[in-house]
Amino acid sequence: MRAAARLRAAALALPLACAAACSTGGPPHAAGGGAGGEPAAGPWRPAPGTDWQWQLSGPLDLGVDVPVYDIDAFEASAADVAALHDRGVRVICYVNAGAWEDFRPDRDAFPAGLLGEGNGWEGERWLDIRQRDALRPLLAARFDLCRDKGFDAVEPDLLDGWLNETGFPLTAGDQLAYNRMVADLAHERGLSVGLKNDLPQIPELVGDFDFAVNEECAEFGECAALTPFIDAGKAVFHVEYALEPEEFCAETTGLGLSSMAKRLDLDAWRAPC
């Protein structure tokens, strides 16, 4: 589900050049205040350095004093989102877009032919992202859930299957096409969307996404690859699991990242930079 499950492609060169300026496509989402960025004619785009909280397990703590929350699409309620909006917080909807999960209520909607190898997390299997026509309505239904609960944005997880042993011969082109479909589905629903990891394709995708979410770039010496988002005026929401804040904060905040230490289960605990 998260970075610890990924196989690192150590030999893969990470392009560091900044890509084209960001696009403005898609209508703004009406819910929520202006936290983390000024209102604009396009999707909400949080500014570099915006503080955030990311919680996917445990009793949801709605009291963290930050302008942006990232919480689970299925576990969070519309009332949770509304409570955060009431104090001006923008809310990101966590959705697994790259793997099937046997614990989700829509698990039976995924045909067996879409399911590949396990990804290292119990109950999860990689999806065959080449089958975009089959996956599009399944993701659309999940994004509809995010929209209907009032979320402002989507964090689609596991957008880097092509770098992993999925059981499918995925190519860079397959991943680009899939990730752009994901971004379009979010924007069609008035939701902003973040690029999760997939560092090698940032120069090609920075214009399609409104912010980035990254795990462990400091531990693996990859943080400079995220600077195209910063250069485009878009936040990079970043966490480290194995490092202490004093081991990475100077580097990552110097680059403009919104960094904190978290436990791997992503409960309420956080140690922000």
Describe what you observe in this structure:
The chain has 273 residues and is of the alpha/beta class. It has a domain at 54-215: TIM Barrel (Alpha-Beta Barrel), CATH 3.20.20. Helix content is 23%, strand content 19%. It has six helices and twelve strands. The chain has helices spanning 78-86, 132-148, 172-188, 202-205, 227-231, 245-255; strands spanning 53-55, 68-72, 90-96, 99-101, 115-118, 124-127, 153-157, 192-196, 211-215, 236-240, 258-261, 271-272. The protein has a nine-stranded mixed β-sheet. It has a three-stranded antiparallel β-sheet with strand order 4-6-5, with no helix packed on it. Helix 5 links the parallel strand 9 (211-215) and strand 10 (236-240). Helix 2 (132-148) runs parallel beside helix 3 (172-188). The protein is globular. The model is unreliable at 1-40 (pLDDT under 50).
The secondary-structure element order is EEHEEEEHEHEHEHEHEE
Indicate the low-confidence ranges by residue numbers: 1-40
* Percent helix: 10-25%
| Shape descriptor | globular
Enter the CATH topology name of the domain at 54-215.
Answer: TIM Barrel
The radius of gyration is 17 Å
CATH evolutionary superfamily of the domain at 54-215: Aldolase class I
**Tell me, what is the CATH class of the domain at 54-215?**
Alpha Beta
State mean pLDDT (0 to 100 scale). Answer: 88
